Structures are given as C-alpha cells and as structure tokens.
Amino acid sequence: MVNNRLRFMGMACALAAALLGGLLTGCNNQTEAPATVAGFTSLEDLEGHSVAVINGSTSDVLLSDTNNFAHIRLVRCKTPTELFAAISDSVADCGIIDTVVLTTLGMAEHGLAVDFNLPGGFDVAVAFNPRDEKLCQQFNDFLVQIKSDGTLDEMFGRWCSQRLDTVTMPTMDALADLKGHPIEVATLADNAPFSFYKENVWTGLEVEMMLRFSIFAGRPVHFSGYNFDEVIDVLRSRGADAAAASLFITPERSDRVLFSHPYYLCKTSCISPCVEGKNVWGF
Questions:
Q1: Which of 261, 265, 264, 266 is nearest to 144 (CA)?
Q2: Is 36 exposed, middle or buried (0-12, 13-18, 19+ CB in 10 A)?
Q3: How many CB atoms lie within 10 A of CB 5?
Q4: Mean pLDDT taken over the chain
C-alpha cells in the first residue's frame, strides 16, 4: 500500500512539474513535431480547452484537480471509441488516452494525431474483492509463470502491435474440460485491445489472460461487461470475483480492492485532430 501511494505521489509530482515548466514533449523516437491543428505541447496548453477522458479513469481524477487545472472542461466518455468520436466531432478539443489504443483502434483513420506523451506511467493489474486473498495469490502465481515463460510478452506483441482485424484468439482446448463454480470476471465491452465483445464472443488481451488463468486455476470463467466507472463497485458488492478492466493501481483504489501484481505499465498520450493531409504518429 505504501509503495503504491509513493509511486502515485511521484507520478503526480512529475505531472505538476511538467505543468509548471511546460516540459512535456513527444516520444524520444519522434522525428518531427506532431502535425495537429492545436499543436498542444504540454498540460499547461490544455487550460481553457475541453479534454475528453474515460469516465472514472486516472486522467479524469488528475484533471479534475481544480487547484492545478482550473479552466479545463472535461468531456467524460464511457469507451475509447466514444473518446475518439468526441474529438473527431469537435465535442472535445483533445483527449488523454492509453497510448496502446492509438495503434489498435487506428488513430490516423479517425483524423487524429499525438500532441505529446505524458511522462512516466501507471501500473495496471487485475483487481479482486479484498476477501478473495487466496484467488489473488493464485493469480499472482499464474502471472509469475506467464512472465517467466514468455507467454505474457507474446500476448502483448500479438495484441498491441497491430490492427485488431489481424489478431485472433488462440485455441485453448483445455477450457472445455473445466468444471466447478466459475470465476466471475467484470470487464469492459469496448476496451480494445484489452477486452471487447465481437460477434457475441469476448476477446482481447485481458480476456485471453483470464482464460489462461482459468486453466491454471482449474475453474471455468464467466465474463460480464460494465462501464469503466462501475467495475470497482461491482467487485466490492461481490457481483464479480475479479475485474480485468485495465485498472491502474492507485492508493484510492487500493483502499477499496485487492490488486494483483502489475502486468503492464500504461503510458498515456494527448491526441487531437491532425492537420489535413498529414499523418504523423508521434511515437
């Protein structure tokens, strides 16, 4: 808990320093400035503008701090697709979102480009009801296994480096043999590439990870879709055993749920409409 709180405070301090100094820039391998109409270069530039965020996300919490961001109007969206649309339709001037999503959802096809990338990142983990310490520990043991044997890296390489229409779920025959009480998993129906509902089938990186965990645990798994801002409450009310919903580990959330070890360091980007005729990715 203390380590999570210190990590979060460190990230918040880094964001504050960047705000005061206007130091946020693009990724190190960017060869030219992002070709966006607005040309935002730092969080300071967002003052006086409307910013799309995922409702209940860490970006939502940080930018809601009126002491640092007194003149930002937040446009809260339920899904990444809705966030893209809000910017494309001029409901919001820009948006803050997970950098991985930009590749898999085709940012350029929505007429968007990266303005700047936020410093640092947040650890992402699966959340469990605080009473389910045994299930959480079992998942941590599973996580050690898929990290050490390269399975997790292979999954990220497959799901997060290419367009989703080229990715398929692997066949896991062992799922058919699982018996007993299912692990109820709360997830998001429109959170590609991590979880999404396609042709009446749950798919995505976090879905695959939880299916693999069910084989490891010897129990079937059942997925239910929720909005991002609902999953913690569902978990707390025992409506689910676990939440695989791209949840950042924060002190506030750690007070309410039990987090597994992290499996992903999430980085975020500010995006806005690109200059017509230009297609610059910024990372």
A1: 261
A2: buried
A3: 14
A4: 85
8 vs 150, which has greater pLDDT? 150
Considering only the C-alpha atoms of the chain, give the largest distance between any 2 of them, rounded to a whole number of Å: 58
In order of their start, the domains of the chain are 2-121+267-273 (3.40.190.10), 123-266 (3.40.190.10)
Nearest to 87 by CA among 43, 54, 47: 54
d(CA 2, CA 198): 39
Per-residue pLDDT at 15 exceeds 60: no
Which of these, 190, 256, 202, 199, lies nearest to 226 by C-alpha position?
Answer: 190
Residue 127 near residue 185 (C-beta atoms within 8 A): no
How distant, in Å, are the alpha carbons of 18, 98, 238 from that of 254? 26, 21, 16
In the predicted structure, residue 12 carries a pLDDT above the cut 70: no
pLDDT over 70 percentage in the chain: 85
* End-to-end C-alpha distance for the chain, whole angstroms: 33
**Token pair of 51 as six digits:** 């910013």
Report how far residue 68's alpha carbon sits from residue 66's, in angstroms, rounded to the nearest whole number: 5
Residues 281 and 12: their CA atoms lie apart, in Å, by 26
What one-character-per-residue DSSP string does 140-190 give? HHHHHHHHHTSHHHHHHHHHHSS-GGG--PPP-GGGGG--SSPEEEEE-SE
Q: What distance in Å separates the CA atoms of residue 232 and residue 234, rounded to the nearest whole number?
A: 5
For 143-158, b/e burial (b = at least 16 CB within 10 A) is beebeeeeebeebeeb
Q: Give the sign of the dihedral formed by CA 196, CA 201, CA 205, CA 210.
A: positive
For residue 229, CA distances in Å to 54, 59, 238 come to 9, 13, 16
